[in-house]
Amino acid sequence: MRLILLGAPGAGKGTQAKHLCDKYSIPQISTGDMLRAAVKEGTELGKKADVLMKEGKLIDDDLICAIVKDRLQKSDCKNGFLLDGFPRTIPQADGLIKILTELKKQLNAVIYVTVSDETIMQRMTGRRSCPKCGAVFHIKNNSPKQEGKCDKCGTKLIQRDDDKPKTVKKRLDTYNNLTAPLVKYYKEKDLLKEINGEQPVKKVFDDILNALE
Questions:
Q1: Extended beta strands in the chain, E state
Q2: Catalytic residue among 71, 123, 127, 193, which?
Q3: What's 125's domain CATH number?
Q4: Which of 69, 88, 105, 149 is catalytic?
Q5: Which range of residues forms the domain containing residue 147?
Q6: Do residues 112 and 192 lie in contact, with contact meaning Cβ atoms separated by under 8 Å?
Q7: Nearest to 196 by CA among 106, 90, 111
Q8: Do residues 196 and 204 lie in contact, with contact meaning Cβ atoms separated by under 8 Å?
Q9: 136-138 and 127-129 as β-strands: parallel, antiparallel, unpaired?
Q10: Which pLDDT tens digits describe the chain residue by residue (213 residues)?
Q11: Cβ neighbours of residue 184 under 8 Å, at least 6 residues apart?
Q12: Is residue 174 part of a domain?
């Protein structure tokens, strides 16, 4: 099973990715993980990426695609893979098709988990984290027993910068601008499976499996 997972930050992609990888015995491959692994292994591509990242520069599409090609040839990808966070742009999507053609593989589907911006704002801005033990709560859906305090260690909970309304809105705008063209791209290739992400986790997963069957 060779899949791409699309969805805005806060759409619940992480949870679904884990379930899918367990079900099909495939690795979840995210751009961040790939870059870190390439840098750690000290590959030629990793060295180039390391220099760019240290200078705070964006990794160009060609380099990202080369790192992806490298990763997809590793033995754990023989049953397939789940790409998360790649491709992000149309040139990267074109690059992926080229890579898969060279490796004589084909994509099975692109899962697009859709959640409204309003729901994502509510999900992310309501999150509260424990700075000590890392536990995460939500003021509505999973509130701590004692308001503002961690159930596990009693530390005062905080709202991470990532979860502040201004940051969430900025991340959503960036995501929507980048992803809209990809949704159209994969729709035209008849690969897109649109899944309503505003349902309970199990129902979302069942819908994904039905779409893949």
A1: 2-7, 28-30, 81-84, 109-114, 127-129, 136-138, 192-196
A2: 127
A3: 3.40.50.300
A4: 88
A5: 2-208
A6: yes
A7: 111
A8: yes
A9: antiparallel
A10: 999 999 988 898 888 999 999 999 999 998 877 888 888 888 888 888 888 878 777 778 888 899 899 899 999 999 999 999 899 889 999 999 999 999 999 999 999 999 999 999 999 999 999 999 999 999 998 999 999 999 999 999 999 988 999 999 988 988 888 888 999 999 999 999 999 999 999 999 999 999 999
A11: none
A12: yes
Query: How crowded is residue 38: how many other Cβ atoms within 10 Å of its Cβ?
Result: 22
Residue tagged active-site, from 160, 170, 184, 203: 160
Number of compact structural domains in the chain: 1
- Indicate whether 213 belongs to any domain: no
- Decide if 127 is catalytic: yes
The reply to whether 108 falls in a domain is yes
Q: What is the pTM of this model?
A: 0.82
Please report whether residue 80 resides in a domain.
Answer: yes
88 is a catalytic site residue: yes
Q: Is 171 a catalytic residue?
A: yes
